[in-house]
Design brief:
2 domains; about 220 residues; single chain; Alpha/beta knot
């Protein structure tokens, strides 16, 4: 993991997951308690994906159950379902927003961007470890299990006929967002208890970016 902001987030909130800090100049005091190693600029560039790394990188243990078909023991009351969100920037931003608004987990389809890819992790700004993630082809089975456990599945849909206020007051909420181009599948829409549409000026803007739509919906569906 690279980027000062992302590393700082992980160091402060998930120190047990940090295996080593790599640095090129001076090691910030916050990182000195961790195993660390000085490297050259060229060595850091060979390790990092960005062309101009900021001088510090962290080796972090990532959760091993991200690609599992099973839900965690404690799912929490707010869960995000991402169906085929293919842009890693959008996927990472949605994960980061979910953390910010108190969502406890994210279910992703296998066609979603990999949550552990460089751009996705970078877009989460270090929050990728702050909730549970499941990326699986069996996502519909997880949806079914959550519905049986009392979760209300609400779908964000351009053709939806309900107001976003439907998201408020749900004891257990599963919020579904679909592919950037084609939206949600018929299977998810049919399983939903409601299909909401965010009112916008369609004469000037046909639609919202999925990350912007998700931010609005998660804000409305946050725990009050």
């Amino acid at each position: 993991m690279e980027g000062a902001r992302a590393i700082s987030q992980v160091v402060r909130n998930h120190p047990g997951e940090v295996r080593e800090i790599l640095f090129t100049t001076e090691l910030p005091p916050l990182y000195q308690k961790f195993t660390n190693r000085r490297v050259t600029d060229s060595q850091l560039r060979s390790i990092c994906s960005s062309q101009t790394p900021q001088g510090t990188a962290a080796v972090v243990r990532m959760p091993g159950d991200i690609y599992s078909d099973n839900l965690p023991g404690r799912t929490g009351n707010r869960i995000l379902l991402l169906e085929d969100i293919q842009d890693p920037g959008n996927a990472g931003t949605l994960i980061r927003t979910a953390v910010a608004f108190g969502f406890s987990g994210v279910i992703m389809t296998e066609k979603c961007a990999d949550p552990l890819s460089h751009k996705c992790v970078q877009s989460t700004a270090g929050t990728v470890l702050s909730l549970w993630i499941r990326r699986t082809s069996g996502y519909l089975e997880l949806v079914k299990a959550l519905k049986c456990d009392g979760y209300k599945l609400v779908a964000a849909d351009l053709e939806g006929d309900e107001d976003p206020s439907l998201l408020q007051g749900k004891k257990k909420l599963l919020l579904a967002l679909g592919n950037e181009a084609s939206g949600l599948s018929a299977a998810v829409l049919q399983a939903a208890a409601g299909r909401i549409k965010i009112p916008i000026d369609r004469d000037k803007a046909e639609s919202l970016n999925v990350a912007a739509c998700g931010a609005i919906c998660m804000y409305l569906g946050r725990t009050l």
